[in-house]
Specification:
The chain is α/β, with parallel strands linked by helices and 456 residues long. It has 17 helices and 22 strands. It folds into three domains: 85 residues, Udp-n-acetylmuramoylalanyl-d-glutamate--2,6- Diaminopimelate Ligase, Chain: A, domain 1 (3-Layer(aba) Sandwich); 208 residues, UDP-N-acetylmuramoyl-L-alanine:D-glutamate ligase (3-Layer(aba) Sandwich); 135 residues, Mur ligase, C-terminal domain (Protein-Tyrosine Phosphatase, Chain A, Alpha-Beta Complex), CATH 3.90.190. Helix 15 links the parallel strand 20 and strand 21.
């Protein structure tokens, strides 16, 4: 993590540490949250719509911080706390991260996309860690505050930082990319998430492509080559572009795929046929693995090390997570988030599994889809295969549209729609038996992992 003096930090954030003694203060790490302050930290108070971190500066010092940054327009700075005065504390946080990263020999691999960012981040990290010292974005620290905090956690001898870049609107990924200046970047796909804010898939693709704003000259850009909204953007770019996808037109594509209960086997042809295994369910996760392979080869990781890295990945929770529950019932916990693209992929995964008795889906609302949200939910339900899925459970107001779509093909006694989660859980308990498998998926706000917890 960052270890510098107030004097150094003041230069990086275009601020002023008042007094000789303040300039000599040494910090170890940075925090914006007094609840997680560690001894020696620099506290950076952020001003939000409903809170003001400046109110907690004294408490931060009591909890172990050695000083703080202070925004000049905020009244009553504490006289007994070492302070660096700046025009804007958020900008100071970002400038501090940008300059700290520039002082390190660390290369950056940046990742964005509508779906699969976190899984891809985990795969890239696991593969590169066989050869380099690597650190990655922890949790969902992928926005204009979280990513700078991730950067400031980097050790000075870290060789590669794998940084996830999220967004809620235009301009956010551009800011993050210019801050990190990546050597390489991945765009996993273009889906429907954020349609409510961006209006169209074209708008989403424009926002995701902002990841190239800070990409270094002659940097590597890895994209989903089956997505025209991306391929048309790279026709005249100066970046080194590599593509992955399901078809032979891509640089990386799977030749053979075998889905088993413990993961997915696939082969690719790159200077010889190589078989890979990922302990993750779902053909859609092969695309994530292919992008990781592309980045790893670009960074001179050997094929044996790539195979080892993929075989030993640790995927962040609630993403196609296979859980063996009590009474012989298995669960696929994919409750972290959902969009039409990712929900169809998860349902396809369940439909492809052969070794279970009944196969049941529990599907919740998909949020932030804009004006077409009802149609998106209906089409997801309508697309479920009656020959491969036995029961459909839905949760939430929008989820009822999934149920209505499913009823186009399913008999009514195989489709159940709920607004009461406990009632859903009770009916599901009566429905499942030994040897069954249940897919649970919905947007984060639906908290459908509670269904898995209740039964598993």
């Amino acid at each position: 993590m960052i270890k510098r003096t107030f004097k150094d930090i003041a230069v990086w954030v275009n601020g002023e540490a008042v007094g000789t003694e303040a300039n000599l203060v040494e910090i170890s790490g940075v925090s914006t949250d007094t609840r997680t302050i560690q001894k020696g930290n620099l506290y950076i108070p952020i001003v939000g719509e409903n809170f003001n971190g400046h109110d907690f500066v004294t408490g931060a010092v009591e909890n172990g911080a050695v000083g703080a940054i202070w925004q000049k327009d905020q009244p009553n700075p504490p006289a007994d706390v070492p302070l660096i005065y700046v025009e804007d504390t958020l900008l100071a946080l970002q400038d501090l991260a940008k300059n700290y990263l520039a002082s390190l020999p660390t290369k950056v691999v940046a990742i964005t996309g509508s779906n699969g960012k976190t899984t891809t981040k985990d795969m890239v990290t696991s593969v590169l860690s066989t050869t380099y010292k690597v650190q990655k974005t922890v949790g969902n620290y992928n926005n204009h505050i979280g990513m700078p905090l991730t950067i400031l956690q980097l050790e000075e001898d870290t060789e590669i930082a794998v940084l996830e870049m999220g967004m809620s609107g235009r301009g956010e990924i551009e800011l993050l990319s210019k801050l990190a200046k990546p050597e390489a970047a991945i765009i996993t796909n273009i889906g429907e998430s954020h349609l409510q804010d961006l209006g169209s898939r074209e708008g989403i693709s424009e926002a995701k492509f902002e990841i190239t704003a800070g990409l270094r000259e002659n940097g590597t850009l890895v994209i989903h080559g089956d997505e025209p909204l991306l391929t048309e953007k790279v026709e005249h770019t100066s970046f080194h572009v590599m593509t992955f996808g399901s078809t032979e037109k891509n640089d990386y594509y799977p030749m053979q795929i075998e889905q088993k209960s413990d993961g997915t086997h696939f082969t690719i042809e790159r200077g010889g046929t190589t078989e890979f295994f990922i302990p993750v369910l779902g053909k859609h996760n092969i695309n994530n693995a292919l992008s990781a392979i592309a980045i790893a080869q670009q960074l001179n990781v050997s094929i044996p090390d790539i195979k080892k890295g993929l075989e030993t990945i640790k995927i962040t929770g609630m993403r196609t997570e296979l859980i063996q529950g009590k009474d012989g019932v298995a669960f696929i916990n994919d409750a972290y988030n959902a969009s039409p693209t990712s929900m169809r992929a998860a349902i396809e995964l369940l439909q492809d599994l052969k070794q279970y008795n009944k196969k049941i889906v529990v599907l919740g609302d998909m949020l932030e889809l804009g004006d077409k949200e009802v149609a998106f939910h209906f089409e997801v339900g309508k697309g479920i295969d009656t020959n491969k899925i036995d029961y459909v459970f839905t949760f939430g107001e929008l989820g009822r549209n999934i149920a209505e779509g499913a009823k186009e093909n399913f008999s009514e006694n195989r489709v159940f729609a709920y607004d009461d989660k406990q009632a859903l859980i009770a009916k599901l308990k009566d429905t499942v038996d030994d040897g069954d498998i249940v897919l649970v998926k919905g947007s984060r706000g639906m908290k459908l992992e509670e269904v898995v917890t209740a039964l598993a």
